[in-house]
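Fresh eyes needed here. I'd like your take on this protein's tokenised backbone:
***
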Amino acid sequence: MTPDQVPQRLLVVDDDDVFRERLARAFRTRNFVVDTADGPDQALAIAKTQPLHIAVVDLRMPKGSGLDLLPALLELQPKLRILVLTGYGSIATAVQASQMGAAAYLSKPADADDILRALARTAFQPIAPALPDETNTPSLARVEWEHINRVLSDCDGNLSEAARRLNIHRRSLQRKLQKYPPKR
């Protein structure tokens, strides 16, 4: 970095203390000024007082949804580039995050390099609609997994209610959620 360059300020919002601090440390070694928050309230307090360039926001947090935080952050700082990071990735939430103004969307586990690559890919490229073709067709297992996560999200993470809506036993739902998402 040359002396006339100002380091970019980055905000990491995640309820997992260990992950949040590990990610913050990794960005600091890459010459970012890093603020951290464990939920939406802290994130908004920081965004009100600090000019931010990038925000990495967890999708699901006990103190509030990352999707609910997106418009509030963008209202405070319209040029902020937000990456949504989640352990519960699905096409539905990715589309919703994009429509709400997220620059990128990644599934966990992801490190600082993954995040920077995802943001670099979207830096100067408008999001183009995908053309339908056979290679983009998800597998039946993938569609089922995404549907289960969408219903669980609609139920605010309430496993019992999601099991009722899906008409499966609660324990069966737990087993399905413990598996990694199927490949396309």
Q: What stands out?
A: The chain has a mean pLDDT of 82. DSSP finds eight helices and seven strands in the chain. The helical segments are 17-29, 40-49, 66-76, 91-99, 112-121, 140-154, 159-166, 170-178. Residues 14 and 131 are 34 Å apart (CA to CA).
